[in-house]
Amino acid sequence: MASYNFLKPYTFKNGITVKNRVVIPPMTETSAFEEGSVTTDELRYFKLHSGGAGMFISPVANVAESGKGFEGELSVADDRYLPGLTKMASAMKQNGTKAILQIFHAGRMTNSKILRGEQPVSASAVPSLRQGAETPRALTEDEITALIEDFGQAARRALEAGFDGVELHGANTYLMQQFFSPHSNRRTDQWGGSLENRERFALAIIKRVHQVAAEADRPFLVGYRISPEEIETPGIRLPDTLKFIDTLADQPIDYLHISQGHAFQTSLNDHADTEPVILKIQHQVAGRLPLISVGSVETPADAEKVMAAGIDFVAIGREMLREPHWVQKAASGDEAAIRYTVSLADLEELGITPALWHFLTVNMHADMHVTGAN
Ligand SMILES: Cc1cc2nc3c(=O)[nH]c(=O)nc-3n(C[C@H](O)[C@H](O)[C@H](O)COP(=O)(O)O)c2cc1C
Question: CB of 32 closer than 6 A to ligand 1?
């Protein structure tokens, strides 16, 4: 048995113990049914990829119909999804792996085609800077209140379906981030303007979702995913993020997941600053919450580097798609057998659907280390 630090268990303050520090980050498969239910293809993928990592965070699921961000997205917006979500939780919980449901609203990062004719909504009527972006409609106060409740109901469904927790998707430019961002949020009411007002939507969601966790008959994790910066001007900059994180660290959440392209990435905006963002965040949090770092981690040595920096968890995304037995191989000293490439011939064995393959190789331009034709 190898003695890597990432193989050590971790116990959260609510008593849930995860068997190791390796996390599969949320990776959408774009393979759900058109109406948002999980497909048997996805269930197969979950079973194949579960069992090694301590925590398996699901592909993102929308909490409301207006929050659908792309085709083939899972939904948790109604009780009708409970049978599928229950199968999903059980498929993701092989061999002691803990299953977390990531929940979100896409906000302006969608379009009226995906929303079947409806106009996207956001904090304000400001389109994103991506090509072809539609101008969203600003949410009313009543709609904001209803959406906060939608997050609460989504958490309740995750609990009923048997998940070990939920992750609030406050990252990757979606609605929770849109409320925090001075680019997408130009409101002049209590939900916009000052830093405190831009934090309000996230904090209200945390409060509502925590209520579900607190009333549950078993420990239930509430995680929060955040993107530290934006490149738009105006946009989210690190000093504001660190203040927000300081507030988040005192909220009733169980972990903070820092979404970046590289685990030790430096500032996207301040090129003179050479300190990795994750270390700034670690300093700010000062042990109040465990952190998950993600981004381009592939080898056991890469993962161990994250541990050596004192980060609690390491998430491994694309590499886990290629190698579902990464943890088992690292643990048994069979590292030479870890796969770092993927070819068309591997897709069936890996449970990668044609839709996910298309998403990976065409839409996302994700570097998947593909060998042969794709
Ligand atoms: C196919 C694919 C789908 C993704 N879907 C999601 C998602 O649903 N929610 C999310 O927060 N991040 C999503 N991400 C981002 C990943 O969680 C992760 O942050 C990113 O892939 C970087 O980690 P890696 O370098 O280990 O792959 C996705 C990434 C990929 C490659």
Answer: no
DSSP structure class, residue 38: P
- Asked if residue 62 is part of any domain, the answer here is yes
Residue pointed to by tokens 């990829």: 49
371 within some domain: no
DSSP for 181-216? Answer: -TTT----STTSSSHHHHHHHHHHHHHHHHHHHHTS
- Residue 370, domain member (yes or no): no
* Closest to 171 (Cα-Cα) out of 249, 106, 254, 92: 106
Is the Cβ atom of 225 under 6 angstroms away from ligand 1? Answer: yes
CA nearest to 206, candidates 241, 249, 164, 242: 249
Ligand 1 centroid–CA 157 distance in Å is 23
CA dihedral 106, 205, 23, 219 (to 10 degrees): -140
- Please work out whether the CB of residue 60 comes within 6 Å of at least one atom of ligand 1: yes
C-alpha distances out from residue 230 to 45, 171, 236, 267, Å: 32, 10, 5, 10
Cβ atoms 314, 307 nearer than 8 A: yes
Does 373 reside within a domain? no
| Domain of residue 73, CATH code | 3.20.20.70
> Does any ligand 1 atom lie closer than 6 A to the CB of residue 294?
yes
Per-residue pLDDT of the chain (374 residues; tens, 9 = 90+): 689 999 999 999 999 999 999 999 999 999 999 999 999 999 999 999 999 999 999 999 999 999 999 999 999 999 999 999 999 999 999 999 999 999 999 999 999 999 999 999 999 999 999 999 999 999 999 999 999 999 999 999 999 999 999 999 999 999 999 999 999 999 999 999 999 999 999 999 999 999 999 999 999 999 999 999 999 999 999 999 999 999 999 999 999 999 999 999 999 999 999 999 999 999 999 999 999 999 999 999 999 999 999 999 999 999 999 999 999 999 999 999 999 999 999 999 999 999 999 999 887 767 889 988 77
Give the residue numbers annotated as catalytic, written as ranges.
174
Question: Does an H or E element contain 62, and which?
Answer: strand 61-62
β-bridge mates for residue 221, sequence order: 165
22, 27, 320, best to mutate for ligand 1 pocket (most atoms within 8 Å of CB): 27
Domain span holding position 165:
5-363
